[in-house]
């Protein structure tokens, strides 16, 4: 299982992503979010093909198809965070924090 907490920035919304996998190929993703773009998922498990999601091109695959239906902000970090959580839960990557620092 992997868990990722996203504090998206100036919007102030927090999203929690939980992913479980029994076979390292299928990911059961749960998203709980304050953001209206993701709130409708409300922790309901979504089943995704981990390999199709994680080894495709940027912006393609099940995660982007699913989340782009309601998220209209191209720079939102949530889709990338879902992919990272899927990678870790399915053993396709080691768990390591990711960060962005905005400097002006």
How would you explain this protein's 3D organization?
By secondary structure, this protein is of the alpha+beta class. The chain is built from three helices and four strands, in the order E-E-E-E-H-H-H. A four-stranded antiparallel β-sheet has the order 1-2-3-4. Strand 1 (2-7) and strand 2 (14-20) form a beta hairpin. The termini are far apart. The relative contact order is 0.23.
Topology:
Blueprint: E1 2-7, E2 14-20, E3 26-33, E4 46-49, H1 50-54, H2 62-67, H3 78-89
Antiparallel strand pairs: 1-2, 2-3, 3-4
Essential attributes:
alpha+beta
Write a brief structural summary:
The protein has three helices and four strands; from the N terminus they run ββββααα. By secondary structure, the chain is α+β, with helices and mostly antiparallel strands.
Distance between the termini: 37 Å
Shape: globular
Order of helices and strands: EEEEHHH
Residues in β-strands, percent: 15-25%
Give a short account of the largest sheet.
Answer: 4 strands, antiparallel
Mean pLDDT: 94
Structural class given helices, strands, pairing? alpha+beta
Helix content: 10-25%
